[in-house]
Amino acid sequence: MTDVVSGLAPELAGAKKGSGEVPAASAGERFTSYDVEAFEVPGGREENWRFTPMKRLRGLHDGTAALDGTVTLEVTGAAEGVTVETVGRDDARIGEAGTPADRIAAAAWSAFREATVVTLDGAPEPVTITVTGPGADATAASHLQLRTTPHTEATVVLEHRGSGALADNLEIVLGDGSRLTVVVTEEWADDAVHVGAQHLSVGRDATLRVTSVALGGDLVRISPVVSYRGPGGDAELVGLGFADAGQHLEQRLLVDHSVPNCTSNVLYKNALQGKAGTTDAHTVWIGDVLIRAAAENTETFEFNRNLVLTQHARADSVPNLEIETGEIAGAGHASATGRFDDEQLFYLQSRGIPEDVARRLVVRGFFGEILNKIALPELRERLEAAIEAELSITGV
């Protein structure tokens, strides 16, 4: 039987309490479940979905997607210190990092046949994991878990490519005292849709560094959730997105500080360029940080910057900071959205630099802070070249 929540707008009458369709008073009260039927079918007016173009989700949200396609997952660079396993959903490790918090993540959980578990035990070389979509007009679900053993250090590059629609759950489980650096790229074909939930669980005195780069795809919506299992955890999430005409890039993150003496730092940058007569280029960034009553001596900061290069582009940015204790080391959040700086352009042109080159230099500088965090030269250069190709599309 469905509980009816009183006082709601008519379109939400009959929504389940805590289902995610009714706004929660606190991020700590958000509803989670492995059961897809525990979530109401979103219509697009709900807070969690109001920025997402529902008609472009290929049925991932309402149960009409077959999710019977095949996703190819290839692990390269796996040598000493790396174990790759294919397991069923009955493996006790699956779900350790977190529980789905929306209907699509729950659908992906219910639909995947086998999960891939990659255990990193002192891997000396970077490990590359390439996820290839199910193909044009196909839909699929997948599940990947990355694990580190205590007091180890590793680097993983997670690449997304190909066509089709993918709903997936990514789990990252850091052992105590370990350090993991992850670079996630969204380099999809123009038709692709990717809706992903990231469950990031940080152990005692563990360090997580995640750099996300979103360039391709028709619609990409990623929802990272950071949780801490012990004091001393340190998480940094940085990312960039470049949205062309018609692209929708969305990041919805939650950093949940529930234990003392942990830190987090979040920085995302988006650039947008549209084109007359097309669907707007659109980026969405929702940044939630929750500091619970028990999380004393927390230090956290989150920042989102958006650079609008042309007309016919839209950036939505909503930073939220919720603090339940006054005993913190520091907390802050900020957001800024602006158009191309004509003064910078004039300065460069006055020194003999052509306008098109000057515009490229400004955008490169805007993204440089993020790209410089990628310590793998070949990968960084490839992504820089991809951004340069994006800039050439409208002659920016």
From TrEMBL:
Region annotation (Disordered) ranges: 1-25
Protein origin, superkingdom: Bacteria
Residue spans crossing the bilayer: none
Limits of the SUF system FeS cluster assembly SufBD core domain: 136-366
Protein family membership: Belongs to the iron-sulfur cluster assembly SufBD family.
Protein name: Fe-S cluster assembly protein SufD
